[in-house]
Every structure is written in C-alpha cells, then in structure tokens.
Amino acid sequence: MNSLLTGSPGPGDFLLSLPPRLSVWIAMSSYEELISMNKCSINGQPTMADVTHLAYLSEELIFLKHLLGKCLDWMGTVALVIFGIPLFIIFLLYLSALFLLIYQKTHNLKGDYYSNVWDDARLILSTMWDKFARFWNGYELHGTENLPDGPALLIYYHGAIPVDYLYFLTRYFILKRRCCYSIADDYLFRFPGIKSLTNLMHILPSSREECLNILKNGHLLGISPGGVREALFSDESYKLVWHKRKGFAHLALDAKVPIIPMYTQNVREGFRVFGRTTLARWVYEHSRLPILPPYGGLPVKFRTYIGEPIPYDPNITAAELAAKTKAALQSLIRKHQQIPGNMFKALMDRFHNEKEKD
C-alpha cells in the first residue's frame, strides 16, 4: 500500500505476489509477533513504532480479506455457469414429472402411460421441450424422410448429456404423433420420481425380449451402442466408443428390420465431462457408475441428422452389420461435424439462419 506513495516496492507488494493462503499466514504470523512485542512496552505504553506497524498490518489484512472475498465470488460465478444448465435440465425433467402427476389427478387417469389417452399430455410436454430446444439450441431435425412408417432400429451417437436425443423424441412425436421407443442405461431408472416420465416417453431398460417385441409390433426403437461409456469417454473428436458391441446387430437381423444411423451436430460442444483419465475409466468399467460430472450447456447450434437406412440383409453376419453401421455413423459425423469440435464455432452457428428441414 505504501508503495503507492513512495513509488518503491513495499511489504504489501511482496504479500500480494504470494498465493492468498500463504500471504494471510505470513500476515497473521507477523501480527502475532507484534502482539508479543507489545507486551514489552515502555512504562506500560506501546511504542510509536509498534502502533505504526500494527496499523500497517491491519490495513494489509483488510485488503487481503477483500481480495479473498473477490476470488471466492469469482469461483462461485464460474461454478454456476459451468454446472447451471445441466442442473436446469434436471430441474425441467422433474418439472415434467410433476406436471404428469397433476395431469393424472385432474383427468382421473390410470397409470398406464403407454395408452393413447396420454397423447394430450405427451403433446403438451413435447411442445414444451421443443420450444426450449428451439430457444436454447436453435434445434433442427434433418432427414425425417429416412424414417419408415414401420419398424426400424435407430442407432445414435451418445453425447455427454443426451438432451439432443430428448429433443429428437419430442420433435418426432410432434411431427408424426408417434412415439419412438428407447433403450436407456439402468442407472437412469435409479433416479427417484421420473418413472412416469420415462414410461410416458417409452424409455425402457435394456431387455432383448422387450426390444424384439417392440420391433415386431411395428415400432421405431432407438439404441446407443456406446451408451454411458461413450458419453463419458468420447470427446470433441467424436470417436465412437462401442467396446465391440454388436447385440443391436443381432437384434436387427432377428427382427428383420433396417438400421438407421443418427447423430447431432455440436452435441459435444454443448456438454462435456470433467476428469477423463485412465483411473476414471477403470472405476467405470468395474462399477458401471457415471462418476464424471458433466459441464457446459452453452447455447450452441444443435442439428440432428438422420442417415440413410441400412436395409435388412439375410446374408450378412451380425459382426459385419455392426461394422457397417459403425462406418455409416462415422461417415455421417465426418460429413456434418468439424473435427475436432470447436465451441466458439458451434456458438456462432447458433446465429446462422439456415432453413429448417423437418
């Protein structure tokens, strides 16, 4: 502080050059030393040097306290920005579940969420989510002409938070008045209070028999072979993390249905995850718990692209079909995605007015 008057470096400048915690420790140590010195006073009165030194240290401590408070405020703001939107997505999910509970009570409905009597509620929620998708991410859906009216297996790339897939489900219902069934990881169903919402949107835990019945009954079924593993350990290079999975290919061959690749542009620029390390991968592989926290939620441009169908071929093996599907999805990503992904460019795309094709 005195350096402002003299023009030369003072003790306060030295303290400011140190980390805050160390600066406070040094200042407090000096303060305690000064108190000890004051016990040896002249005729019971502190000397002028002691009083001046005490005032100087008090001034430094007040400044350091103010600086520490500013640092904590800045860190809190950064944390709110980083985690705010993921938490808001969770809030919207629970708000949707609360709406369903109120709707059920006011309309005297039973809990069979697969019934057509719930179509009005599905439309209301789909419209709400679609408006949020348009407002926040300028969401577009391209290639709906590739979706058949009959059964098909939809294979998609899994983002860090698959909110883009939820956008697709709601837009698809608005356009077709038809639900796309979906398979989700078991951990999703451990969240309390959202069972009604998952049932309403036809989101189910993995079961081969159930998947086969869905396809044989003429429905569209969405599966991400990468699942949570891809959500956590893929990155802005948009690599597919499928871990040699080919069960979906066996399913498509048994049900004799086409496979359709799907991917959302900039989904990795929308949300990412902290802590992709070898240790984190080992923990996940042994516990199957999604321990890495997501962050982000920037209003980047989301465009979901639905690729051309891979028709059913009885002469192809499951391994060959899985490899063919993976190549088709990678080709779709390379065609529409800048690799590696760039958050700034994805954010600028948000303000590019391209005619929607849905």
TrEMBL record:
Extract the SMART domains matched here.
PlsC
- Pfam families (UniProt xref): Acyltransferase
Instruction: Say if the entry is tagged with keyword Ribosomal protein.
Output: no
GO CC terms, sorted: membrane
Give the GO molecular function terms.
acyltransferase activity
Q: Which InterPro entries match?
A: Plipid/glycerol_acylTrfase (IPR002123)
Give residue ranges for domain Phospholipid/glycerol acyltransferase.
152-267
Instruction: Kindly give the CDD domains that the UniProt entry links to this protein.
Output: LPLAT_MGAT-like
Q: Which UniProt keywords apply?
A: Membrane, Transmembrane, Transmembrane helix
Mark the transmembrane ranges. 74-103
Alphabetized SUPFAM superfamilies for the sequence: Glycerol-3-phosphate (1)-acyltransferase
**This protein's name:** Phospholipid/glycerol acyltransferase domain-containing protein
Which species is this UniProt entry from?
Answer: Anolis carolinensis (Green anole)
What does the organism's lineage look like at the top?
A: Eukaryota, Metazoa, Chordata, Craniata, Vertebrata
